[in-house]
Amino acid sequence: PLIAFGVSEGIQAYSDSQLRAAIRQHAPDADPIKVAAMTVDIFCEQANAQAQRLCNNHWWLNVMSTAALGSGLAGLVLLGTIWAAGRIARDNRTILLHLFKPGLYLTGCALIGLVVVHAGLAMAAIYLGESALIQRVHVGVVFAIGLGAAIGVVAIAGNTFSLVQTIRTMVIGKALTRSEAPELWTQVDAIATRLGALHPDHIVVGLNPNFFVTEAEVVCLSGTCGGRTLYCSLPLMRLLSKPELQGIIGHELGHFKGLDTEYSRRFYPIYRGTIGALASLEGVGAADGAKAIALLPAIVIFEYFLECFAAAEHKIGRERELIADKEGAAVSGQQPFSAALVKLHAFAGVWERIQQATIEALRMGRVY
Q1: Highest-scoring range by mean pLDDT, 23-37, 202-216, 290-304
Q2: How distant is the alpha carbon of residue 70 from its chain centre?
Q3: What is the rounded distance in angstroms from the CA atom of residue 95 to the CA atom of residue 125?
């Protein structure tokens, strides 16, 4: 926009000076004050049909200036709106829930419109600028810009709507049926009922040193689990007493209670999925130079979009965890829950060393 505006204003200033010089040459007795104030805009208001070509070109220059200012302002408004939405969402989880997904789509549509306008401005700047200054036009350059814009629009449109996706969590673990682990299921159901939380549809146990709940799809050794899933870490479960384990499960099921349920289902899986999709999009752009240029505006703006909403997600996420901590402590008592948190923090980091030691042992033909 800045380049197009500069070209337009420069050509108009040059045309104004040429017009005044022509008037002084053909009408040396004309009023100097009126001549100095004469512009092509004023001249075209009074011009006859013989000046139609000059006035048509000048009209297009005015359109280019207006479009440049408008698109520049629109870009600033887009960035400002994204920033403001991220700030507002920090203090209102409901706004975060309702703004994130449609905001991504609206940002993509705005980007497509801006790419089209910017390409048109670049083409017009070259065409009108060269016509006015050197009386020739490099058609190949204009065509290349138009082609690049078309590629950019297709690339952005194709990737924008695939960018918004729900994450699928992959774990090395097994889904336990009620008949396979009746006591665990009984405990989980009792805790969910006590908290007034939604009951999980699946319980998956695995080796990762983590406990979590999700409403995204979980892919494990037993297949794909849809709905609400509770994941429990077998290595960490061995270190917890029964009250401590109940406290941790209470913490996780606390995320299936109240507004947190909506957050877990409608926002978080899409947020995490979008981060992963954007990383893939950056990889596609890095592998293809032409596509990288076309996708660069979208990647930069989407990164800024996620950055603004990440601050809101981090703030609300921390509040969610503190509330869930209270639910866990209400189930087990403060001391057992505190002990459980200390154990998880102390031992979770050890798992990576155990994995590495296992790999080294397998390489030597031994079992760790």
Answers
A1: 202-216
A2: 24
A3: 41
Distance CA 231, CA 184 (A): 12
SS3 219: strand
Q: How far apart are CA 303 and CA 277, in angstroms?
A: 11
| Residue among 182, 186, 213 nearest 198 (CA) | 213
Token digits of residue 142: 């204009």
Q: How far apart are CA 331 and CA 101, in angstroms?
A: 35
What pLDDT digit, counting tens, does each position of 54-65 carry? 677 677 777 778
Pairing label, strands 202-206, 173-176? antiparallel
Task: Locate 35 and state its tokens.
Answer: 């001549």
User: What is the pTM (predicted TM-score) of this model?
Assistant: 0.61
Q: Distance of CA 138 to CAs 9, 117, 148, Å?
A: 21, 20, 16
CB atoms within 10 A of CB 133: 12
- Give the pLDDT of residue 290: 47
Q: What pLDDT band is residue 232 in, cutting at 50, 70 and 90?
A: very high
CA distances from 199 to 218, 227, 254, 330 (A): 16, 10, 10, 17
